[in-house]
Amino acid sequence: MRLVLQGPAIQMAHLSHIHGLIGGHTQFMQVGQHAYYLPVAGDVADVVKTFCAEQTIDCCVVQDKHQLPSFGLCVMDMDSTLIAIECIDEIADMMGIKPQVADITEAAMRGELDFSASLRQRVALLKGLPVAALQRVIDERLRFNPGAHAWIEACQAHGIKTMVVSGGFTFFAEHVKNILGLDYAVANTLEIVDGKLTGNISGDIIDAQRKADELIKLRDQLGLTAQQTIAIGDGANDLTMMSVAEVGVAYHAKPIVQQQARYAINIVGLEGVAHLLTL
């Protein structure tokens, strides 16, 4: 096992203090600008985790077998994971109803609402919006989360295939796929008639189970085992997908996701996933 610490706030004094708390015989190794690891015999004491939380440092105990060369597929959520926005909330802002839609989105991500029903409810509110508004969201508001490009580059360097599976929309997922150089993209399709949203979704909804199914389907197509897969997400609808992967990473996630994920990152960007899996 190894204790991985990450965060721009880390100073040598922090490492020395944690080393003293653990009582180890080896020294911290640096794996990134603000990332270090220390071999440990097992899980670390709560006092270490409490100290890291107080000092704004990400702290994970990672299994030694979890290293980038061991993986072949990473499946990721899009909204609030790869990108810094919830696309449907920004679309709603074009109609002046962002607060109403955002409240539903937040409740769904916390796991308080059925995802499929809540998505249909939100999309229905967008009826009549010109499709040009979707491009405005890309041009004016879509931003990648810190470290997104670095994480995908790390995957590519190790031959790891990448897929975005989103409960959002293909219009944005394809854009994200193209910009980041992902291998695959799966998302919902907004129904458009005469250049306007109808308020409906075409086809089946990409919900929690469908995300997991897409991971398993691609994993099998690539001839990989479950032990060679990574899933990254932030909302309750990512938990099923994360549960079928060897490594599930909660990225700046809702509490329910952090509690159930194997590893959680709350301070650093997506480059932190690479640091978790580097020796």
Q: How would you describe the overall organization of this protein?
A:
It is a single chain. 39% of the residues lie in helices and 22% in strands. Strand 10, helix 11 (255-260) and strand 11 form a beta-alpha-beta unit. The model has no long low-confidence stretch (mean pLDDT 95). The longest helix has 14 residues, at 208-221. It has 279 residues and is of the alpha/beta class. The chain has a domain at 1-64: Alpha-Beta Plaits (2-Layer Sandwich). Strands 8-7-6-5-9-10-11 form a 7-stranded mixed sheet, with helices on both faces. It has a 4-stranded antiparallel sheet with strand order 2-3-1-4.
Secondary structure: elements and pairs:
Elements (H helix, E strand, L loop, with lengths): L1 E5 L5 H11 L6 E4 L2 E5 L6 H9 L3 E5 L10 E4 L10 H7 L4 H12 L5 H10 L7 H9 L7 H10 L3 E9 H11 L3 E10 L2 E7 L5 H14 L7 E5 L5 H5 L3 E5 L3 H6 L2 E3 L5 H6 L3
Parallel strand pairs: 5-6, 5-9, 6-7, 9-10, 10-11
Antiparallel strand pairs: 1-3, 1-4, 2-3, 7-8
- CATH topology of the domain at 1-64, by name, is Alpha-Beta Plaits
What integer is the average pLDDT?
Answer: 95
CATH classification, class level of the domain at 1-64: Alpha Beta
Computed Rg: 20 Å
- Helix content percent band: 25-40%
Which stretches are poorly predicted, pLDDT < 50 over at least 5 residues? Answer: none
Distance between the termini: 11 Å
Indicate the CATH architecture of the domain at 1-64. 2-Layer Sandwich
The total of helices stands at 12
The amount of beta strand, in percent, is: 15-25%
Shape: elongated
Class from secondary-structure proportions? alpha/beta
Report on the biggest sheet.
Answer: 7 strands, mixed
Q: Tell me the strand order in the biggest sheet.
A: 8-7-6-5-9-10-11
Order of helices and strands: EHEEHEEHHHHHEHEEHEHEHEH
- How many individual β-strands? 11
